[in-house]
Amino acid sequence: MFTEDQVQAYLERIGFEGDVRVCKETLDELVFCHQKSVPFETYDVHVFGQAPALDEDSVFQKIVERRRGGYCFELNKGFELLLKGLGFDARPVLSRAVRGRDGRMPINHRGMVVSLDGVDYSLDVGFGGPMPAGALALVDGLEQDIRGELYTPRNIDGMWWAVDRVTRSTHDFFDDGVPMRKQTELELCLAKVEDLDFGPLNTAFSQPGTLFRDFIVCNLRLDNGHYALKDYVLTVREDGQKSVIEFANDEELKAGLLQYFGMAV
Domains of the chain, with CATH numbers? Predict the structure, then answer.
């Protein structure tokens, strides 16, 4: 578990201000602050070709001290340790990214659940795509408006849950000109798992032939939009407007990573 000094440093890293109370309002603010401050990013996995270290010290050093991001196995672990340090009942869960696909995906994601006042909440700061900007109560069929986005959890078979989102998106991110529809973004399982269960998944999804190894992917939420990068192409969605920036070479890319994602690489 993080020390008190590490917890405070982490809160400063994500720009969280004010008193911390063990309540849903604090959870919502922590999730939103984290999604706006710490990017989902696969730069090191792609460039150096190796799985990131997942021990507590390495996760803290990368996210807080180096002010970098990571992917789900790093980000959701770091956030879980932060929440535990603040007194929340947080634990990891096995998940699979769906993102509207028709076919079944293998388990490929580290999610998180917080139990609070008799309710389980799904939280995610490491999805690399559209997920709630707050805590989602796992109440079957309950549509929830989270900062203007509509999500509905759906119980599949007791242990497994789906997270559905109302979207105009044709792929992962918001676009105009297509009808509103509901699609499944994520599935998660409430069965108890251990931290060590994610080591093999971390290794598997950093191998050649995977999205995270083959491409540089970065995503960061804004107050009113998001940044999304794949290799040398950055998509900016802000105040309902979309623009695309293409970086010509590695130097431009590194400058863009620093400017838009706060990443010094």
Answer: 4-261 (3.30.2140.20)
**What gap in Å lies between CA 53 and CA 12, rounded to an integer?**
23
| Residue 211 burial class via C-beta count within 10 angstroms: exposed 0-12, middle 13-18, buried 19 and up | middle
54-94 residue pLDDT tens: 999 999 999 999 999 999 999 999 999 999 999 999 999 99
Question: What confidence score (pLDDT) does residue 246 get?
Answer: 98
Contact 37, 178 (CB under 8 A): no
Average pLDDT of 164-183? 61
Find the distance separating the first CA and the last CA of the chain, reported in whole Å: 28
- Dist. CA 195–CA 198, nearest whole Å: 6
Q: What is the CA radius of gyration of the chain?
A: 17
Helix and strand numbers, DSSP H then E, in the chain: 8, 13
The CA distance from 218 to 179, in Å, is: 27
How many Å apart are CA 148 and CA 156, to the nearest integer? 25
Catalytic residue numbers read 72, 109, 124
This prediction's pTM: 0.93
- With H, G, I as helix, E, B as strand and everything else as coil, classify residue 150: strand
Average pLDDT, rounded, for the chain: 93
Beta-strand relationship, 241-246 and 233-238: antiparallel
